[in-house]
Amino acid sequence: MGEAIVSLRGVLKHYTRGKQTVEVLESLDLDIARGDFLALMGPSGSGKTTLLNLIGGLDRPSAGSVSVAGERIDQLSSGQLAQWRARHIGFVFQFYNLMPMLNAERNVELPLLLTRLPAADRLRRVRVALEIVGLAERGGHKPSELSGGQAQRVAIARALVADPTLLVCDEPTGDLDRKTADEILHLLQTLNREYGKTIVMVTHDPKAAEFATHQLHMDKGRIGTGEPL
Amino acid sequence: MKYFPLIWSALWRKKPRTIYTMLSIVVAFLLFGMLQAVAVGMSKSFEISGADRLFTAGKFSFTEILPLGYYSRIKSTPGVQLVSHASWFGGVYQDERNMFPQLAVDHETYLEMYDEFIVDEAARKEWARNKTGALVGKGLAQKFGWKVGDRIPIQASIWPKRDGRNDWEFDIVGLLDGKDENAKAQAEVLLFRFDYFDEARQFGQGYVGWYLEKVSDPAQAGSVAAAIDRQFANSPKETRTDSEKAFNQAFMKQLGDIQLIIQSILGAVFFTLLFLTGNTMMQSVRERIPELAVLKTIGFSDRSVLALVLSESLLLCVIAALAGLGIATFLMPGLAAKMPGLYMPPEVWAMGLGVAGLLAFIVGFPPAWRAMRLDIVHALSAR
Questions:
Q1: Which helix (H) or strand (E) element contains residue B141?
Q2: N or C: which end of chain A has fewer CB within 10 A?
Q3: What average pLDDT does the segment B358-374 reach?
């Protein structure tokens, strides 16, 4: 295994619901190598999304440490974590989560608003990102004018545009038909192989997982078998 | 500025709702602009009352007339530099709706007393020569289509002529203007000569409505006023001398506390607006919780999200307030034709924008706070 870009040690996560404490992740250790394309699989409630949220800096562990790109993100304040996410993580969601009133270019530009890049540079980078996902001609279109696959490509372009260390994808093909899903997965594969992007993807779909370089199966908050492809 | 497209697009997410809310705010600020213009206009009329001018009227009522003989006694009071007098005429032009102030004044001293009025030299000379001459405010002349040289009839409601008729005629000899906006508003009157009035009226000869005094040292105005009143103490016509500003305020109070009425109306309007706009902002943020969560996910800090929602609220309120105040300013000249002297002072714009900012903060803060406290994981899982 190469250099670990993500490293979790003794991670525990529980939620309190009323008087009940629900254990979601139990004493979890995990390393993800730079340049890996990891598919996290498992049944609903197995803790996949919780793990993804911890890696993406959206949530904090109840115990244990989470290091991403050499930084202990479990020790960062809320403001520091927001800055860290802007620098290091690109998110892709199942339902695309684009801003409906903004066109594709403006949607892709959002992470760049947090940088000091001038408008012309932002636009140039936005166009490059749209070019990579094959939507250079659709920059002026609003999400409602795009198909599901195109909307997800815009979401991927948004995730890519700030050149993050890690792409975190939560069921990126869950809302798409097989053909479109395969196109998106091919795109992610290209980003991993040609652009060296490290990708962590949660999926229910074994076919989607086949596009990854590694698979991890989770069950009841624990990591089961890892099957390198 | 780079966030503007984001804020602007959020504002127009539900166009009909934003338009209706905006219209409500526009109407509220239109009302605000008009009523505040009246209120500021009134307070300005107090402010322009010269600090060095005193006003002497009957002790018990403003309507009490005073002997003309007081003139020389007041003039000889130490500290008094200039004395003039005026009498309320209270007539109408053609129709009872055409009511405006008409004053019979001492033409030799009145314009010197009110040096904020502008009257050209030819008009002054003609007024000195023509006993039935009158000076009229520019706005009045424009409203009624008068010009210099016209003879105009005014129907008296208090002062009939010796022959029992109520129709008085005056020759317009010049136009009155003011050195600034406030003086212009004050100049919307008809001034005619007291000697003509005193000779031609049926009764009241030798009496004036009130005296005006200019003091040589404004710091001594209080003691000069007391000295004037002392001279007439225990006489059948006792006087009460005060600063012109104090008199004007007392006079307006007699009409009712207009400021209070205006503030009450505006208070009710803005209180209602608070709920309406607040509800719109709350709804708008509630609908966008997943979008706001996405912004936070990609790195917008809690404070940035708070600022974005507050900016949206500010944009909504300020645009609508500008439109409302703009319409009020646009309509003002039309209203001024009916109510001479009415105009939109810059203070009303400043006050309006201040109120818009405050409104934006009050209605924007609760949803902005909610957006700021948003938990990303919960907000995204609720999707």
A1: helix B138-144
A2: N
A3: 94
The pLDDT value recorded for residue B43 is 63
pLDDT at A228: 42
Number of domains in chain A: 1
Look at chain B and report how many structural domains it folds into: 2
Q: Is the dihedral of CA A115, A116, A117, A123 positive or negative?
A: positive
The H-or-E segment that residue B298 falls in is: none
Containing A11, the helix (H) or strand (E) segment is strand A4-17
Residue A21 placed within a domain: no
Per DSSP, A32 falls in state E
Q: Are residues B81 and B226 in the same domain?
A: yes
Domain stop point among B175, B201, B236: B236
Contact A85 B299 (CB under 8 A): yes
The verdict on residue A119 lying in a domain is yes
SS (H, E, C) B25-79: HHHHHHHHHHHHHHHHHHHHHHHCCCCCEEEEEECCCCCCCEECCHHHHHHCCCC
B250 in any annotated domain: no
Q: Which residue of A has its CA nearest to B288?
A: A99
Query: Does residue B58 sit within a domain?
Result: no
Q: What is the Cα B260 distance to its own chain's centre? A: 14
Tell whether B81 and B32 lie within a shared domain. no
Sign of CA dihedral A89, A93, A99, A105: positive
A47 belongs to a structural domain: yes
Domain that holds residue A219: 32-61+77-228
Boundaries of domain holding B269 = 4-45+257-381
| pLDDT tens digits, one per residue of B134-172 | 999 998 998 899 999 999 999 998 899 998 899 999 999
Predicted local distance difference test score (pLDDT) of residue A229: 37
Give the pLDDT confidence of B1-31 residue by residue, as tens digits: 789 999 999 889 889 999 999 999 999 999 9
Total length of chain B: 383
CA distances (Å), B167 to each of A62, B95, B155, B172, in order? 95, 12, 5, 16
ipTM, interface predicted TM-score of the complex = 0.91
Residues B302 and B162 placed together within one structural domain of the fold? no
- Residue A85 to residue B383, Cβ atoms within 8 A: no
Suggest the residue from B11, B15, B297, B308 to mutate for an interface test with chain A (most A CBs closer than 10 A).
B297
Who's near A15: CB < 8 A, 6+ residues apart? A21, A22, A24
Using CB atoms, which residue from A59, A101, A106 is nearest to B12? A101
Q: What is the pLDDT of residues B224-260, one digit of tens each?
A: 999 999 999 988 899 999 888 777 666 666 656 777 8
Q: How far apart are CA A151 and CA A158, in angstroms?
A: 11
- Tell me if residue A99 falls in helix, strand or coil: coil
Residues of B in contact with A158 (CB under 8 A): 298
Tell me the pLDDT tens digit for each residue of A16-33: 878 888 888 988 999 999
Residue B247 located in a structural domain: no
Does A17 map to a domain?
A: no
Q: Which residues of B lie closer than 8 Å to A, measured between beta carbons? A: 2-3, 5-6, 9-10, 12-13, 290-291, 294-304, 376-377, 380-381, 383
Is B164 in the same domain as B90?
A: yes
Predicted local confidence at residue A221, as pLDDT:
82
Mark whether B71 and B33 lie in a shared domain.
no
Of A53, A111, A122, the CB nearest to B298: A111
